Each structure stands twice: as structure tokens, then as C-alpha cells.
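FYI - complex with S-adenosylmethionine, inputs then prediction.
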Amino acid sequence: MNIFGAVRKERFIKSKNKMEIIKTVFTVERTIRYALLSKKEKDEIYSLERKREIFIRNLPDITISHKIYLDKKGQERYGRIYPDQKPQRISQNTPLIKWVLRSSIPHSYGILLYLLISRLNKVAILELGTGIGVSTLYLLEAMKRTGGNLDSIEIWDAIAKLHMSLFKGHSNKKYNFFHARSQDVLSTLLQSKRSLDFVFHDGSHQYKDVLADMRIIMRLLKPAGIVVFDDINISTQMQAAWKEISLMQGVIYATTITAGDNKFPKMGLIVRGS
Ligand SMILES: C[S@@+](CC[C@H](N)C(=O)[O-])C[C@H]1O[C@@H](n2cnc3c(N)ncnc32)[C@H](O)[C@@H]1O
């Protein structure tokens, strides 16, 4: 795993959580730069790869319909690239497996989420944009080490229903699934005075939505809490959103992450100061 084009912001830390924030930043750096693995972690990662494979191989043999957009090069993409972009067409029959392989996080990034949560012992976790649940597998696996709890949110009816049926066995008080819009759930969490240690944002990739989510997330996040954003380079909207987030008040550290074969950073990570 290597790091590419890191953005650093280490401001003077004046907080009673100073030591925890410093430890968090150092562990993040070590994990995303070197990911030196213990024997136990190597075994866990191997078994996670197998779990991911089996999960994807056993997906129901069905098709889904979704909007298709064109990028600058005329390539088909599954999400809007520019503000107010109209879809090129609606695919009526994309095989589910094709959609999952295109839209889920790759194994290398899943490992990264797993290592960050388990090494930092982050216990209150939130995921925005569950999809079918590939990223959820890594979060739930990390929780086996931390004993934490996870909330995950998905807006799309067909995909949410499918996720619920595939994750029936996981529905307990440690895993809560919300079939809803992220901003609505975030507002409810705020009202109930919840606080969060770790957020994985892979929901709406629209500039306005990402920033609206992030403004609430910052109010829910504990000092030294982490937010990881997926697809920061997928569109001009996401690039602009990431830039603004990395400079947001309260963000003490921001870095981009490149793993596996990616040439450009796929994810961005921020740490909240006090
Ligand atoms: C890229 S997919 C998620 C993939 C998943 N994280 C994984 O790696 O397996 C993005 C998902 O976010 C959902 N989504 C988009 N906007 C959302 C919103 N405002 N609230 C909740 N979910 C949203 C989409 O329906 C889609 O299923």
C-alpha cells in the first residue's frame, strides 16, 4: 500500500485529547503508508478475502435497473459526473454481480478500513451508502476485534431490500441497518445525542449532499474521530467536495489514500481535532 499526494494539516493541538489525536494521526500514517501486518492480521485478511469472494459468488442471479451516465471520455459510469447531468439511459437489466463489482470497494481498501478500525479500537461506526454490503463485511469483521457497533444507511429500495435479506444473520443490536436517506438518519442521530468514532462515507457523491452529510458528521464525531470518503476523484463534484472537507474547521489532519493498483488516490481521510 502506498500513499499519493497526501494533504497534511497539522495545526497546533490544544486539547485535553491531544495525546489521543496524536496517536490517531501516527497510527493512520503507519497504516496507510506501510500497513505492516502482524501474523494474526495476515491470517484475518486472508480469511476476509475468502469471505468477500464467497459473498460475491453467492449473490442471487438477478438483474437491476439503474441510471447510466457518460464521462468525459464517453465511458459509461454508474453515477452522475457533473452537476445536473442527465442520464444517458436507464439500464433495465444490469446483472447484479456486475453492478456490485463496479460499485463496491476493492479488497485493498476494505483491508484498510478493517486495519484502521481494529488498530485504533474505534467502536462507534457509521457507514453511509451500504450498497449490497461488501464494505459492510469489512466493518463488521473489524468489530469482532473491537466489540463495537455499526449503523449503516442505504437509500435505494431494491438494493436496501437485497442487503437486508443477505445480512439477516447480522441484524442484532450491534448492527443497525437504516433504509433511508443519509441526512435524515444523521439528523436523528444528532437529536439522540449520539457520538461517533469512525465514519465511512460512500453514499451520495453529489457535492451538495456530501457537504451536507459532512456538516452533521462533524457534530457527531468525537475528538480523534475519523471519516473516510470513497471516490474523491470520481468526478469534479467529488474533487471539489474533498478539497472543501480537508480544509473544514475542526479537521486537524487530512490525507488522500491510494491502495492496490490505483494510480490516483481513491479515498480521503480526515481526523477531527478537539
Ligand atoms: C458506491 S455504492 C456503495 C457501495 C458499498 N459501500 C460497498 O463498497 O459495497 C453507493 C450507495 O450509496 C447509496 N446512496 C446514494 N445516496 C445516498 C443517500 N443520500 N443516503 C443513503 N444512501 C445513498 C446508493 O444507493 C448506492 O447504493
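The mean pLDDT is 90. Residues 61-102 form one domain.
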